[in-house]
Amino acid sequence: xxxxxxxxxxxxxxxxxxxxxxxxxxxxxxxxxxxxxxxxxxxxxxxxxxxxxxxxxxxxxxxxxxxxxxxxxxxxxxxxxxxxxxxxxxxxxxxxxxxxxxxxxxxxxxxxxxxxxxxxxxxxxxxxxxxxxxxxxxxxxxxxxxxxxxxxxxxxxxxxxxxxxxxxxxxxxxxxxxxxxxxxxxxxxxxxxxxxxxxxxxxxxxxxxxxxxxxxxxxxxxxxxxxxxxxxxxxxxxxxxxxxxxxxxxxxxxxxxxxxxxxxxxxxxxxxxxxxxxxxxxxxxxxxxxxxxxxxxxxxxxxxxxxxxxxxxxxxxxxxxxxxxxxxxxxxxxxxxxxxxxxxxxxxxxxxxxxxxxxxxxxxxxxxxxxxxxxxxxxxxxxxxxxxxxxxxxxxxxxxxxxxxxxxxxxxxxxxxxxxxxxxxxxxxxxxxxxxxxxxxxxxxxxxxxxxxxxxxxxxxxxxxxxxxxxxxxxxxxxxxxxxxxxxxxxxxxxxxxxxxxxxxxxxxxxxxxxxxxxxxxxxxxxxxxxxxxxxxxxxxxxxxxxxxxxxxxxxxxxxxxxxxxxxxxxxxxxxxxxxxxxxxxxxxxxxxxxxxxxxxxxxxxxxxxxxxxxxxxxxxxxxxxxxxxxxxxxxxxxxxxxxxxxxxxxxxxxxxxxxxxxxxxxxxxxxxxxxxxxxxxxxxxxxxxxxxxxxxxxxxxxxxxxxxxxxxxxxxxxxxxxxxxxxxxxxxxxxxxxxxxxxxxxxxxxxxxxxxxxxxxxxxxxxxxxxxxxxxxxxxxxxxxxxxxxxxxxxxxxxxxxxxxxxxxxxxxxxxxxxxxxxxxxxxxxxxxxxxxxxxxxx
Length: 844
What we know:
By secondary structure, this protein is mainly beta.
């Protein structure tokens, strides 16, 4: 045995993990039987897992939401937690998989009509959603997403991290302004990874395959290795590869442009006329294909933990992922079920990496934590934008303005090549006093700098040189800009036990300074417009390849946020709390530099919450009722030329109830339920314009100069968020011969939702109907091997998640203009069709 251990040790020392972390993790996991006989932790983790299942009380859940480790039932915040065993049983692998089990969370995609799919979600909490356009030039998000202690939110949307080897997800509902700052106006979502463990060797791998109804075959391979170096240090390596099958069909079709009579087709094998030139009467563009929205994801995580002594430790981590997706993830009902007709290539290459460093130690009896992160994210996209050219030509005859060097009209379809590069560096240093003291303090400093390098190239094939932006062939419109968002803050929360273990008061404060700067070039060539783009250059010097710079603006803001909390522990198992908290989102500069900057918006929350345990901790019942006031909220719309325009709207009022119930009914049966009810409405008219200082005007009655009156009157329901969202999960474990087995059913209900704040646009887009979705799973385990099967969306429901148009809703969504599209060309994004899969897992 000693000889075998020596040989294995030699092999481990020679193994190199850097280039192929997934292969290394799986290979070393397969070698685990030798090591598992000699390591200190339990030799049979399956037995430990079984023992954990067979308990008549609920397992204690720990969270770090308040920057210290605490029992969930003792934290006076409305928090949803999905633990590791829940994530695994629910087969959670991506954002779309877990968000449906979070009642307080909703999301939107398709912002600006040019990007749907993984990595492009805008996340909302507690109904704090305007339903406006969301894309790379929008406002900062109102919900912060964190990987451990480090922010991973970019303007385009949060990272869609593959969910493997994740300890838990913490969802903090309501403003978290004092501890989390500008990125957590409506709440925070935290992904907590498993850390390296020096106490013993551990490894696992899993492999799965699935089939999507009306689509193709997907598969997943994952591996993890926890390797102790010595009693004070360990390395954890994680790797994954996932292929998600497509289910949207790009069907063969054609369209004819009224001004030129040019017809384009995407039919395979079609025969072009005139050599398929941009001015040919009939052109073959692209190829129709079934199941064309497939996704391939590869990623890895490497973390090292070193305990320098009994008080100090250091944990560096490097994590990266590349997601390549094709096609579009929404469908056009005029074409068919889960189908559309697009003509130009559609592809997204989203790759990112983050280096993080966490240092933890003690200064006296205070815990000190330093968290640093550096995130780089590059997104390269190719997008079909032919709807834009078709609808503007149909409505306004714009196709007559697009011609080649010979003066012949060309196909006015546009397609986009864009590249967004994000860099985010953040530092946080905080001190936390001992948890057992009567007076407790959390205090720290925070600094963050975000850089966004923007390139958007809108192209028309064969466009005349005089109409193309100088230096950019066939480019009708170019955006070449740089954006910087900076945030500095001092923060702290002070808690005092008026009566130890019974009555506690907490006050919090955050002093912040933010700035937003946007500069560069946007617009047409001088030969196409006499007022925008090159015609408006402020200097003759080129700007990062663009002809010039035509604007440079910067805004700065500063202020403070407060929090007050009173917590009463009625008994050791029952607690109620009162909270008043604030959150904010910084203002900024509009991408269309001629517009006024938009101002910060603020969210004020008043909340009564409770956390209780019953029947000797067999039942937990938690919840909160609240009222929130959202002042001068930022509302981005798709304006002229397809540019996002952000203006402050008015105020909204949101009243709601959130509740979670966990019941360990028997040794075998556990029931979990979560509900959220919201009444989110405007508290003043939305008129659609502001005063000279950028403040919203709310008095706009019907008049000769304003025949339509308010675009959304007082009392209008806010979009995107349903009035009711809930879920129910039943998990039953039992013995099947010598196997430990389980069956599980998870039901989700989402109420109907509106799609836009503005009533006219809402009528054109239509609403999102209510739906129910059922996920089923079953599995069995023996020793360290397990196998399970699952059926997601068991009844194959077409659950509408979002709607959008490629250009302004009043143009692309116009009713009765085009025979083929009597209700306009409105795309709908649905949840994934019924998916049946099987997964094999082994742990060591």
